[in-house]
Amino acid sequence: xxxxxxxxxxxxxxxxxxxxxxxxxxxxxxxxxxxxxxxxxxxxxxxxxxxxxxxxxxxxxxxxxxxxxxxxxxxxxxxxxxxxxxxxxxxxxxxxxxxxxxxxxxxxxxxxxxxxxxxxxxxxxxxxxxxxxxxxxxxxxxxxxxxxxxxxxxxxxxxxxxxxxxxxxxxxxxxxxxxxxxxxxxxxxxxxxxxxxxxxxxxxxxxxxxxxxxxxxxxxxxxxxxxxxxxxxxxxxxxxxxxxxxxxxxxxxxxxxxxxxxxxxxxxxxxxxxxxxxxxxxxxxxxxxxxxxxxxxxxxxxxxxxxxxxxxxxxxxxxxxxxxxxxxxxxxxxxxxxxxxxxxxxxxxxxxxxxxxxxxxxxxxxxxxxxxxxxxxxxxxxxxxxxxxxxxxxxxxxxxxxxxxxxxxxxxxxxxxxxxxxxxxxxxxxxxxxxxxxxxxxxxxxxxxxxxxxxxxxxxxxxxxxxxxxxxxxxxxxxxxxxxxxxxxxxxxxxxxxxxxxxxxxxxxxxxxxxxxxxxxxxxxxxxxxxxxxxxxxxxxxxxxxxxxxxxxxxxxxxxxxxxxxxxxxxxxxxx
Length: 576
What we know:
Layout: E1 3-4, E2 8-13, H1 17-28, E3 33-36, H2 53-58, E4 71-74, E5 82-83, H3 99-102, H4 112-115, H5 117-125, H6 145-159, H7 185-196, E6 202-203, E7 213-214, E8 220-221, H8 247-253, E9 257-260, E10 263-270, E11 278-285, E12 291-301, H9 305-314, E13 337-345, E14 360-363, E15 382-387, H10 408-417, E16 421-429, E17 437-445, E18 451-456, H11 461-480, E19 485-488, E20 532-534, H12 549-569
Parallel strand pairs: 1-12, 2-3, 2-12, 3-9, 4-18, 12-20
Antiparallel strand pairs: 4-5, 6-14, 7-8, 10-11, 11-12, 13-16, 13-19, 14-15, 15-16, 17-18
InterPro entries: FAD/NAD-bd_sf, GMC_OxRdtase_N, GMC_OxRtase_C
Protein name: GMC family oxidoreductase
Keywords: FAD, Flavoprotein, Oxidoreductase
């Protein structure tokens, strides 16, 4: 029998960026908050001397244990979905800080076009461009960029983001709180080449801070040391903005916040007497197997995309999406990203073994609707960038296409190319399609006996077309940079869940202003249960040509405002 605990004002499920932001804001407002995290406690002191590529980057020390919790995957409904037995295409975080610990720190705001993609596309190109007869399902988010801009600003100031103004993006209310990172030789080459081609390169907005910074809550973030151990690693210097060095300490200092680790939530509990409310959550202590019930006035799902969806589904909250009838909203609009780029081989050697997760330059001339799509067979596009994240020797092994895959020639070419190759890459949006969605698996369960999430996803003609276009543009930039040989990426076919691509999964719990097409309203409040909020990249109505974290952070601040208002006023939140 589950042990019932004392009731709190707010309980969050997962303690990463979203859970930390909700906790900090709610606790500062005087609400009692408990954060349930199924992983363990950790912080900067745990990352000292972690320059072990094999342990962290290859064996995924900081990631989710897929022997306990994974998902099943298929490309289409005719296939049998099988479990993902090892991490590949995306890397799911676990423990305090979640994926906000091992991220690179590339912190882009989504474009104004992203939030109103359907209406802006229709206005400029006509309804035929939406390609609804081919199964594409574009929808606006119910909120505009201008409405979300103050929350972007708040997130950037909390995280101390280092950057510069982007002439191709939405207007800003204030400058970035810290200046851009150092511009290295490789970035200078990209800047010169892309400028020569008529594009507008800028330094990438970075959560690897260019200088020491104290945020508005009094948290200190150190300056980046350019050690090249960002992605898949925690920062040993406390110089990469993450929940453990920003919002979680802020929440704890209030005295109103408790983090409860090793607590795996398996159900959101519904109020049997009031079908507009939930009463709390049920969780399992992963060390002892004991079950607990945590009552709360407000429940906020702040875990990763797949788990937020899963908790709603297993708790029977909301209607599951059916791709045949297109009825239901839970699980619809799953999106990912697709990449297209070019690798250049040079005589010159570069210090590419050094760097930082968000040390890069980029331009948005082919992102969103910043270029004319009238005669193109796709919508949206991608952010084009070169990054110097630090080539680690195990994972980085670029060789020319005609090089054998083993033997002396392979070794010679690997050594020769290690510091003589550069890559320009477009990170491209994927738009929602009726056949890409989340469901529960009928066969496979997690270690607690709860069904696994089933992912049905494949690239569409739209995705392959934008990849081809951006790949060719990347090749032109690399040619202008002076490479001896330029190798374009091979075209994708079916989506493969095996090789790493990006941890930029979105959709499944979409936000909006219409309960017929969304799971939550624009305060991330569930349409069916007034005291239940769901926030994360699952809220995105489609994906963009950017990394998602800044938009996730902005939505979390928006959600926190909603949680505090609900605690004060109750009921269905409306725009003020």
